[in-house]
Design a protein that fits this description.
Elements: H1 2-5, E1 9-12, H2 18-23, E2 31-34, E3 44-47, E4 50-54, H3 59-64, H4 66-71, H5 73-80, H6 85-90, H7 93-99, H8 105-113, E5 116-121, E6 124-129, H9 130-133, E7 134-136, E8 139-140, E9 147-154, E10 161-167, E11 177-185, E12 191-199, E13 206-207, H10 209-215, H11 222-234, H12 246-266
Parallel strand pairs: 1-2
Antiparallel strand pairs: 3-4, 4-9, 5-6, 5-9, 7-8, 10-11, 11-12, 12-13
The chain binds flavin-adenine dinucleotide (FAD).
Flavin-adenine dinucleotide binds at residues 10-18, 20, 55, 82-83, 87, 91-92, 94-96, 98-99, 101, 104-106, 142, 147-148, 173-174.
Length: 272
């Protein structure tokens, strides 16, 4: 159907974003391709250290999946921030990624974890790294005839610390700002790996690479987290709108980066 109708056709997954857009007449697809009954795409399984999540797996099922909680708790935590339980009962993980809202939580986590996304069409199958999947507001690397059939989220490295923090005016709203942070530390107490990704600040999830670099090779202290937050915020040009000014969002980014890093450090194994 997608190959035949191209941009006139839209996939219907959980409908939690598509139906509101259709209600408001912001999109008017000629054809809806309902994938909800393709049971073979409803899977969640651990494979080669990755959480493989099919296109019809519901957000709430992934959130409650023991493997997600144990092996990839940053994903389970981020899911708790996606709307409300009713929305997660219906909405899909792949649908959220394909929708690519700049303030959505799951794209931030996908980029932080270096997730891999599988796109399939009548032309074949390809894997797209999360870093190249999100192109702009509600725009991804998927072609009009492609279905996002699966996302693979790597399990956290044993010994990694993680933090996911968000600020929204009301619980369940899209994030004004969200931050995912991952930290690893060597036996000498020095940081060996840092990953910081922000949502709500730009058209797509933004990696704060200079903030990450400021931590690697250093001991992890509160002062360094505050400095990393300031560093992350300087390169941002967030949007200003009715919900918050650009300046407010930039300040929020600095605070949330600091908090996400502190949360990640708290979850690292004790030194020595
Ligand atoms: P759908 O709505 O069915 O589809 C969304 C778009 O993605 C459509 O263009 C569709 O064609 C395309 N699509 C879906 N699946 C695929 C696929 N497998 N391959 C290719 N294209 C596909 N989201 C958040 O992230 N954070 C929030 O805080 C949040 N709050 C919400 C609050 C409310 C009140 C509501 C109604 C929604 C909220 N959402 C939020 C959105 C929700 O998470 C959606 O479920 C999600 O964004 C889209 O998933 P879906 O399965 O419902 O996709």
């Amino acid at each position: 159907m997608l190959a035949a109708r191209g941009p006139d056709a839209k996939i219907l997954a959980g409908g939690q974003s598509l139906m509101p857009l259709m209600n408001m007449r912001l999109v008017r697809p000629a054809v809806l391709v309902d994938i909800n009954h393709i049971r073979s795409l409803a899977y969640m399984r651990m494979e080669n250290g990755q959480l493989a999540i099919g296109a019809v797996a519901r957000a709430r099922d992934v959130e409650l999946w023991p493997a997600a909680r144990e092996r990839c708790p940053i994903l389970a935590e981020a899911l708790r921030w996606v709307g409300h339980a009713e929305i997660r009962n219906r909405g899909t993980v792949c649908g959220s990624l394909a929708h690519a809202d700049p303030a959505a939580e799951l794209p931030v986590v996908a980029v932080a974890l270096d997730a891999e996304l599988t796109a399939e069409s009548v032309r074949g199958r390809r894997t797209i790294p999360a870093a190249r999947f999100f192109l702009s507001v509600l725009t991804t690397a998927l072609e009009a005839d492609e279905v996002l059939t699966e996302v693979r989220m790597p399990a956290l490295t044993p010994g990694a610390g993680w933090g996911f923090v968000e600020f929204a005016r009301r619980r369940g709203d899209f994030a004004l700002a969200a931050v995912a942070a991952l930290l690893e530390r060597g036996s000498d107490g020095v940081c060996t790996r840092a990953r910081v990704v922000l949502g709500g600040m730009d058209a797509t999830p933004r990696r704060a690479e200079r903030a990450e670099q400021s931590l690697v090779g250093e001991r992890l202290t509160k002062e360094r987290f505050a400095a990393a937050g300031r560093e992350a915020a300087t390169s941002l040009e967030p949007p200003g709108d009715v919900h918050a000014s650009a300046e407010y969002r930039r300040k929020l980014a600095a605070v949330l980066v600091e908090r996400a890093l502190a949360a990640a450090a708290d979850r690292l194994p004790r030194e020595g």
